[in-house]
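Quick look at the format.
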Amino acid sequence: MALETTFIQEKLSQKFGNNVLNFKMKRDIFSLEATSSTIHEVIQTLKEDESLNFHFLTDLTGIHFPDNDENHQFAVVYQLHNWIENVRIRVKTFLPDPAAVETVTDLFLCANWMEREAWDFFGIDFKGHPQLKRILNMDEMVSHPMRKEFPMEDSGRTDKDDRFFGRTPVNN
């Protein structure tokens, strides 16, 4: 029997109640939100429950939403894959600034580099991470360049316009 989205929703809702919400199909991937306090346990359930079998972490990334309210400034998005049924799922959790969430490196070893990248570019702290340090930027950097408060290009350049990339230029 194929793994149905209604089954996943019922299973998670029974276990986590109001801590999982906004279930929907979005671009052919079943998506949901989980509270930051339960995200680790939700991911663990998706992986370890034999009726769910989401054993592969495809991707983990951060997103910055500076226009959202103070409790939803950042999001961490987890993409998981059940290879047996060929089903994908996206789980998102929102965080305030400063952003911090529990690491999932104890569940997926591949999360190590993904979490380091999210910290490097967005400043999201993954509590319990074994070696949270810069992975692509220089160690001397004090900023996190994918945050929207940083301009995309040198302000002296005239061939780039931040408005085209969803950023409002800073008026000096």
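Next, a different chain entirely:
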Amino acid sequence: MEVIQSIRKLKNNNYTLTTKNGRKIRVSEDTLVRHRLLKGEEISEEVLDQVEKEAELDIGYQQALFFLNYQLRSEKEIKDYLKKKEISEEGIVYVIDKLQGLSLLDDLVFAESYVRTVIKTQDKGPQTIKQQLFKKGISDENIQKALDLFSFDDQEEAATKVAEKALRKYQNKSHKEQINKVRQHLFTKGYSKDVISLVMENLEVEKNEDDEWESIVSEGDKLWRKNRRFDPSKRKQKIRQSLFTKGFDFDAINRFIEEKEMEDDNE
């Protein structure tokens, strides 16, 4: 037999039960009440083992409820959280089953809620959302069902806003590079080729010759200074190649280089 020497209260309505032989068990308040555990009471090893097992299940469940208190969670997130809290595999299975039985844990409900939140608050496309849900342990079937909430029209609308914002960011680039940059940006956000193509067709990216010339001068001046250490022939070759890669017209590039050479000659 063992004798309960002390019962010390911890956070979250948990307690540490210590016996005279030095055995310590973390128990929940429910466990204390259920077994009527009191200081100075004698208790058998068998009952103590049962108390320890039940306490782990109760505490694991309480921790899961605490984790769920802030937002919906996936089954994988609950499992990972309980593992960090050193809950046994048996305890995790018990908690998961209990939560599902009370409709507090449902991966499809979680996935649908996640998709709705992303649509309202973020600018990510379906492919990125799919990757994020996969990392959270959601099955392919549930991911697809949840993504059905993100209609093609909604994707087009969201992607258009992303494209317009990106276009403002790249307005100092060449016309060709602006288009490429915006297209790549949409792709990294997770939008499909079909959505991207439709958005780019409707996106107003007019080629303004004055703006184009200002862009080439801005980019070219940086390259001119950067490559000053090379001989004139090598310098022109590297600048011409860099500007062409950035999408500027060959004639405009040659005009820029000619003007820069004239500036150097007049210095």
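The mean pLDDT is 88.

See the schema section for token definitions.
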